[in-house]
Design brief:
Layout: H1 2-19, H2 27-47
Length: 59
């Protein structure tokens, strides 16, 4: 779990730095918000990813 959090925070840091200075007091808060948005986007992409169906058309 800690590795997943580090990956998302590592991805969120440069994105946040585009909008907020790293010296700003609220950088870590905004970085966490960006990381949560990235996580939600990943979950939404996985949830709506089209699945392959087998050749059977009966339910």
């Amino acid at each position: 779990m800690g590795l997943i959090v580090r990956i998302f925070l590592g991805l969120a840091a440069p994105i946040t730095a585009l909008f907020v200075s790293r010296d700003a007091l609220n950088f870590s808060v905004i970085q966490m918000m960006v990381a949560v948005v990235l996580f939600v986007m990943l979950v939404a992409a996985l949830a709506f990813w089209p699945r392959r169906h087998s050749g059977n058309t009966e339910s």
